[in-house]
Write a structure and sequence with these properties.
Elements lengths: L2 E3 H7 L7 E2 L2 E2 H26 L7 H18 L5 E3 L6 E3 L3 H5 L12 E4 L10 E8 L2 E13 L2 E4 L20 E12 L2 E12 L10 E9 L3
Parallel strand pairs: 1-5
Antiparallel strand pairs: 2-3, 4-5, 6-7, 7-8, 8-9, 8-10, 10-11, 11-12
Helix pairs in contact: 2-3
Length: about 220
């Protein structure tokens, strides 16, 4: 059963689900577009909220506060949450970490500020989803990976488990944990600087509410 995203699902149900666009039904395309818009809107709203009340701080202090506030908000979300629409009988996607941080693994659905990275790069492994926004000289970037626990610690899931994944039609998640890194990047005193925090968000992958979150380590640093 496909999962619908918020109000977008109600509008999409009016479309002819038998129409195919590039291998996806029209209803899936509409919901997918709405989901990606929600990702960018949620991140932008978080940035705006975090920026309020810290105008008097230095750019570096504001950047670090922005990272801390963003990660705390993400940790407060359930990993994955859906509700059952009694009228339509469909599942409705509720605000959750997966919906915001890792909506799909489809390169053809990538946008300039939110994309699935099928290849490794910029210090991240293949299979990550990256979202970024810019505000007042600071670029805020979140990088999410589905991970599993092994004898060597948390490791990204195999790329084969991500093939075709999209939160709006997923029957199950690639894993029950997301590794997320929140990084702020800015230029100060002629140098490129950055500050990052990381955590692993854990929960059940049964489509039921879960808000368990576990820290996976923290770090910070300046780029030369």
């Amino acid at each position: 059963m496909a999962v619908k995203g918020g109000n977008a699902g109600a509008g999409a149900r009016a479309a002819m689900s038998v129409v195919k666009v590039g291998g996806f039904s029209l209803i899936e395309v509409v919901v997918a577009t709405a989901m990606l818009a929600l990702v960018c809107t949620a991140v932008s709203a978080c940035v705006a909220q975090a920026q309020r009340g810290i105008a008097g701080l230095s750019l570096g202090d504001r950047s670090q506060r922005l990272v801390c506030d963003t990660l705390e908000r993400l940790r407060s979300l359930p990993l994955y949450r859906v509700s059952h629409d009694a009228a339509s009988g469909e599942l409705q996607l509720e605000p959750c970490a997966v919906g915001e941080l890792f909506p799909h693994a489809l390169p053809e659905r990538n946008e300039p500020d939110s994309w699935f990275a099928a290849e490794p790069g910029d210090g991240r492994p293949a299979g990550a989803f990256v979202t970024q926004t810019r505000c007042d000289g600071v670029t805020l970037q979140t990088t999410a990976l589905f991970v599993v626990w092994t004898a060597d610690g948390w490791r990204p899931v195999a790329l084969s488990r991500l093939q075709g994944y999209a939160v709006w039609n997923a029957r199950r998640l690639p894993s029950a944990a997301l590794s997320v890194t929140v990084r702020a990047m800015w230029r100060e005193e002629g140098r490129e600087r950055s500050y990052a925090l990381a955590a692993v968000l854990e929960g059940r992958s049964e489509g039921r509410p879960s808000s368990t979150a576990a820290s996976a380590g923290y770090g910070q640093g300046d780029a030369p």
